[in-house]
Amino acid sequence: MLKLSVCIGSSCHIKGSRHVVEDLQYLISAHNLQELVELSGTFCMGKCQQGVCVTVDDALSTVSPDTVNAFFEKEVLAKVV
Amino acid sequence: MTRPSLENSAVWLAPGFSSPQGSLNETDHGSANRSVDTAGTEKTTQDPCGIFQTRPYLCLDIGSASVNHAGEELCGDHVEVISDSEQSAVVVLADGMGSGVKACILSTLTSKILSTMMHAGLPIETCVETIAATLPVCSMRGIAYSTFTLISVKDSEFAEIYQYDNPPVTLLRGGTRCELTTEEITIGDKRIMKSRARLMENDVLLAMSDGCPHAGIGVTYNFGWKMENIIEFMEPVSAAGYTAKTISTLLVDAVNSLYGGKPGDDATVCSMRVRRRAPMNVLFGPAANRCDDDQMMPLFFSKEGKHIICGGATASIAAAYLGKRLTPSLDFIDPEIPPIATLDGADLVTEGVITMNRVLTYAKDHISSNELHSRWDVKRDGASMICRMLFEEATDINFYVGKAINPAHQNPELPINFSIKMQLVAELSECLRKMGKRVKVSYF
C-alpha cells in the first residue's frame, strides 16, 4: 500500500492543495488504484516554502496544481503498477 | 412557617410549566419567602429545593432586529441595552414619532435616557418626567413623543416591565404564551403599564414596535398582522432554541415580507431569552516559546466546556499532548476553507488563519445586517462550525492565543502573517463582545 499525504495547512492551501487533492482523488479512481494507494490529508509539515507538500511513503515532493499529472505518473503510477 | 410550601414551589420547579391561572404576578408566588440582603444575593427561608436562590448558571441573551420604513436610511426605532453583568440588564425599545431623522433622534434620546437612568437605580417616575422635559418638540405636530418598552431583569429571574404605547410585551414559556399581570400607573399625563414576572430557563420575552402588528396593512391584510397571530407565529419559534438575535430576525423578516419588502413603518423586534451558560474554549496558535506549550495545553484542556483548536501546528501539539491521533479529512465543503480534522478530546479541529478570517467576516456581518446568516447556519466547513459554536452555542469564550511566528507565513507572497493573526483575534473578540458574550483572551 502506497501512502500519499497532501498538506492542507494554511500555506499549502493558498498554493492550491485543494486542486492537488481533487486531481489525485480523480487520478486514483481513474486508474482503479483505490486498493493500492491511500490518500490522506495532513496539517503543516513545516516545509511551507516547498508547498504544496506531498509525501509518498514519507518522501517529500513539491507538487503544484500544474504538475500534479506528471507527479502522479512518476511517483505513484511507476511505483504501484 | 416550618412546613415548606411545595405547592407554591412546584410552579417554579419545572421549566415550561405555566401556572394554572396562566398568571405570573410575582406577588402570587411566595414573595413573602424571599429576603434580599445588601449584596443583592437572595436568601430564602422556605426553600427546600434551592430553587429560589440566584442561578449563576443562567444568563440573558438579548438580540434585536429592525427594518426601516421604505426609503428611509435611518430607523425611527431604537433599542438600547445596558447590562453590568450577564444576569442583569436594562433594555429599552423606543419608537419615535414619524420616521427618518426626527424619529431616530426621538427614539435614541428616549432609550438612552431611560436605560441610563433606570440602570442607575432611579425610580420610573423620575425617568419618565425627565424624558417629557427633554424631548424636542416637533415643529409640525407641536408635541414631543416617543413610545417605549422598558424591560429590566435582575439575576436572570426578576423582570420588571414598563410599557408606554408600544405593542404589549409577550412572555413565551415552553412554546406557549404566558399572561403577564399588568397594572396601570400614571406619571404626569402618561399612562404606563407596569408588569412584573419571574423568569425561568428558556423563557423568551418579546418586545416590538407597532411596525410589526401594522405589517401588511392594505397589502396583505386589511388591519395588519394581529398580535395574537404574531404570537401564534412566534410560539414554536421561541421553543426551538434559537438565539435572541435569530428569534428577532425571523419575526422581522416575516414582517418585512408581509409589507411586500416595502415597510410602511419602521419595525423592530427585541427578544430576550434566559439561557444556560455555555463555556467555549478556543486554542489558536502554538506558544511563542516552545516550553510554554506544556503550560498552555493543560490549562486549555482542563477548562470546562467545549474545545476548539485552530491551526495545524497547534493541533499537532495538542495531539501529542493528548497522546491521540490527529486525522485530517479531505472534504473541501467550502472550496476556500481548508478541511477540518478529528482529534479525540477536542470538539473541533480546523486550520488557523484562513478559517478564522472567514469567521471574522461572518461575525462582522452577524452584528450588523446578518445577511450572510444562511451561509454558516447549517454548513459543515470549519468556519461555519466555529461560527455556530461561538455565536449561537457559547456564552463565555476563552481564547488561548499562542504568539508563535510561523516562519512559513512570513513569505511576502502569502496573504497571511503574524500581525494579521493578532489583528484577527482582537477584532473577533470585539465582535463577540458586541454579541453579548463574555470573552477572555490569554496570550502565550
What does this structure look like?
The complex is a heterodimer of chains A (81) and B (444). By secondary structure, chain A is α+β, with helices and mostly antiparallel strands. Chain A has helices spanning 10-14, 17-30, 68-80, and strands at 2-7, 37-42, 53-56, 59-62. Chain A has a domain at 3-7 and 11-58: Glutaredoxin (3-Layer(aba) Sandwich), CATH 3.40.30. Chain A has 3 helices and 4 strands; from the N terminus they run βααβββα. The longest helix of chain A is centred in the first third of the chain and has 14 residues, at 17-30. Chain A is globular and about 30 Å long. The mean pLDDT of chain A is 88. Chain B is α+β, with helices and mostly antiparallel strands. Chain B has 2 domains: 58-276, Phosphatase 2c, domain 1, CATH 3.60.40; 279-443, no CATH class. Chain B has helices at residues 6-13, 101-119, 124-134, 227-238, 244-258, 293-302, 312-322, 353-367, 373-376, 382-393, 418-434, and strands spanning 34-36, 42-44, 58-67, 77-82, 89-96, 146-154, 158-164, 170-173, 176-178, 182-187, 190-198, 204-208, 267-276, 279-284, 306-310, 326-328, 341-343, 348-350, 396-401, 438-443. In chain B, the strands form 5 sheets. A 6-stranded antiparallel β-sheet of chain B has the order 4-5-6-7-11-10. Chain B has a 5-stranded antiparallel β-sheet with strand order 3-13-12-8-9. In chain B, β14 (279-284), α6 (293-302) and β15 (306-310) form a beta-alpha-beta unit. Chains A and B meet through α1, α2 and β2 of A and α7 and β16 of B.
